[in-house]
Amino acid sequence: MSAVETFPSPSILVRDARADDMPVLQAIYAHHVLNSVATFEEVPPDLAEMNRRREEIQARGLPYVAAERDGVVRGYAYCNTFRARSAYRFTVEDSVYVAPDATGQGFGRSALREVIRRATALGMRQMVAVIGDSANSASIGMHESLGFHREAVLHAVGFKHGRWIDGVIMQLALGEGDSTPPAR
Predict the structure, then answer these.
(1) Where are the alpha helices (DSSP H) in 36-160?
(2) I need a surface site. Which of 2, 8, 23, 54 has the fewest CB within 10 A?
(3) Alpha-carbon distance 146 to 128, whole Å?
C-alpha cells in the first residue's frame, strides 16, 4: 500500500521502505544516535540490525515507510508495538527520523501522516510518541500539528551526551480512539 503525500509538498512520495533504502535510513538514524537526543540509543545499529528491525515490523503488518523527493530518500517513519503485553495490542508507538539537511521540508510530517493513516486502517486505537528531550520543539510541534496531545514529561529519565534528558509522552487517538471496545 503506497501513498503520495500532497501536504506540505506534492513532490514528496511516501512509500513502503525497502531493503535497498536501508543504507540511507541507517545513515540517517546513525546521525541522530550520534548527534542528538531524539533517540536514547547511544550506539548506531549496523545495517544488518536496521534491516532486521524493518523486516520484523513489516512482518507484523505495521507500516515502515520512506519519504523521498526526486528518487532520493530523505526521511522515514514507522510504528511498532507500544508494549508486549496483550492488552496493549491496539496501541502503537511511532518513530520519525529525517536527514539532517532535510529538516523542516515536510519529510517527517508526510511520513508520519502516512503511518497514522495506515495504523488507523489496521484498527489501531492509540498512537504514542516518546520524544527524547523536552526541548525538542521540532518533533513536539510536528506531532502537535498532526493532532497529538502532550500527556506527560518524564524528567531526567535518560543520560546521553553528558546530560540528563527528559522524555515527552504524546498521544493520538486513532479511528474511534477509546470510545468503543474492540469486537471479540
Answers:
(1) 47-59, 107-121, 137-145
(2) 2
(3) 12
For residue 115, give the amino acid letter: V
DSSP secondary structure, 6-65, as one string:
-SS-TTEEEEE--GGGHHHHHHHHHHHHHH-SSS---S---HHHHHHHHHHHHHTT--EE
Cα separation, 2 vs 42, whole angstroms: 32
Q: How many angstroms separate the CA atoms of 170 and 91, rounded?
A: 13
* Digitized pLDDT (tens) for each residue of the chain, 184 residues in all: 344 334 456 799 999 999 999 999 999 999 999 999 999 999 999 999 999 999 999 999 999 999 999 999 999 999 999 999 999 999 999 999 999 999 999 999 999 999 999 999 999 999 999 999 999 999 999 999 999 999 999 999 999 999 999 999 999 999 877 665 555 5
Q: How far is CA 168 from CA 91, 113, 114, in A?
A: 17, 20, 22
Measure the CA dihedral 136/107/57/85, to 10°. 40
Question: Side chain identity at 78, as an amino acid letter?
Answer: Y
